[in-house]
Amino acid sequence: MKKSIKLVVAIAATSLVTSVAVTPAAHGATKQKVCVALDTAGINDKSFNQSSYDGAKMALSKGYASSIKYWPAKSNADYAPNINKMIAEKCTLIVGVGFLLGDAIAVAAKANPSVKFGFVDGWGLGNNVKAITYKTDENSFIVGYMAAALSKTGKVGTYGGIPIPTVTIFMEGFANGVAHYNLMKNKNVQVLGWNTETKTGTFLGGFDDTTKALQTSISLEQQGADFIFPVAGGMQATTAANSQKTKKSNVIWVDAKVMNTGAQYANVVPVSVVKGLGEGVLATVKEAYDGKFSSNMYVGTMANKGVSIALTPAWNNKVSASLKAEIAKLSKDIASGNIIALNSVE
Questions:
Q1: In which band, very low, low, confident or very high, does the pLDDT at 29 lie, cut at 50, 70 and 90?
Q2: Where in the cell is it found (predicted)?
Q3: What is the pTM of this model?
Q4: CA separation for the pair 136, 130 (Å, rounded)
Q5: Closest CA to 260 of 16, 110, 47, 103
Q6: DSSP state at residue 8
Q7: How far apart are alpha carbons 74 and 96 in whole angstroms?
Q8: Which residues pair with 129 in a beta bridge?
Q9: CATH of 13-134+277-300, one of 3.40.50.2300, 3.40.920.10, 3.30.70.1560, 2.60.40.10
């Protein structure tokens, strides 16, 4: 039977609830008081929080916001109190950064229908909440293929912060990209840290445990992985520092370009999986500014450049022209829909 492969591009089931209702706006061109509720990784995580807040900064610079402010969280227990403080301070647009803020946003949005909410990595929670989502399995698929092609040991690895859909979507895409490489090249590169059949893998239990991140990185190296894809926010820096020390592995950067958030690790990071967090937040603020805020979901894809990959300049001469051409074709095929699925090989 002829072999074919399909790339299944999936957002978490909870993210598929899309409302089309529009929140009435008194008038357009209304500058927003934008307040950002961070998750526990902090504003300088060189990843998720930092990139999302950059979107608020861009909105301020473009005149879509009159002021911006962020609230850090030490634990999940801070999410609801932080959002309540933002409401007390008369924030007109509150952006919650991360899947775990969902419960707090749901309660606050229902109790405060006149306040607009952006929910990064979220799902539909009412007429005044816009979910900001990303098909990160698309670009993760491409770097999975790339890692498999570059691997000298025939083993690559990944780990996540916690097993939530917005983390596992990266890991699934990565493993699927490796599977695609194996199919196309008749190879058998193994993926450590994620099982596409059982949907289980290796997780730290959080996004700020540097000790466990280091232990996991070393363990993956000891098992033979020479390319590691950490999906755990700032913990990728711990993995990259270990790679520089041991010289046994290289790292795939997540959420932002390594040259923007971790340039000191460029020598061990061939490519970044870029999630347009700032762009999604900026688009949400602008929509409110224009008086067109709605609960229609924002979805970043390869096609609209909401997700992408970025080859690290220091690796330009280390990646062959033929592999670059294959990666470029994969990118076009995914963006155009020519590769539309991946979980099944027939």
A1: low
A2: Cell membrane
A3: 0.83
A4: 18
A5: 47
A6: B
A7: 15
A8: 117
A9: 3.40.50.2300
Q: Could you tell me the CA-to-CA distances from 19 to 168, 282, 285 in Å, in that order?
A: 24, 20, 18
DSSP state of 48: H
Quick check: 174 and 147 in contact, CB under 8 A?
yes
For 216-242, the pLDDT digits (tens) are 999 999 999 999 999 999 999 999 999
Per-residue pLDDT of 255-314, as tens digits, reads 999 999 999 999 999 999 999 999 999 999 999 999 999 999 999 999 998 999 999 999
Long-range contacts of residues 179-186, Cβ cutoff 8 Å, at least 24 apart: 179/5, 179/144, 179/342, 179/345, 180/5, 180/7, 180/141, 180/144, 180/145, 180/342, 181/144, 181/145, 181/148, 181/149, 182/148, 183/3, 183/5, 183/345, 185/149
Q: Which H, E and C letters describe 157-218, residue by residue? A: EEEECCCCHHHHHHHHHHHHHHHHHHHHHCCCCEEECEECCCCEECECCCCCCHHHHHHHHH
pLDDT-based confidence at residue 345 (cuts at 50, 70, 90): very low
Residue with tokens 């596409």: 196
| 136-276+306-336 under CATH 3.40.50.2300, yes or no | yes
Residue with tokens 């770097």: 143
CA angle 236, 42, 297 (to 5 degrees): 85
* pLDDT at residue 9 is higher than 50: no
Token representation of residue 342? 């991946």
